[in-house]
Amino acid sequence: MKQYKLTPKSNQHPTSTPPSTTRQEIDEVAKHIARHIEQNPAKAAKVFEHWLNGKSKTTAKKKAA
To answer: What is the pLDDT of residues 42-60, one digit of tens each?
Structure first.
């Protein structure tokens, strides 16, 4: 029985570093989210609860067969 030596494949596509986010962009997003929370705090709390629990915001309802 022959044994074959496996050679790891070289990475054909070089991995590029993701674009870095500036502090200004982060601040803009934070302000945008804060405006949404101010407008509807109950909905924001519900979305946050679902995010903490790892569930999706909208759950698909199963239909009886």
So the answer is: 999 998 888 888 866 565 6
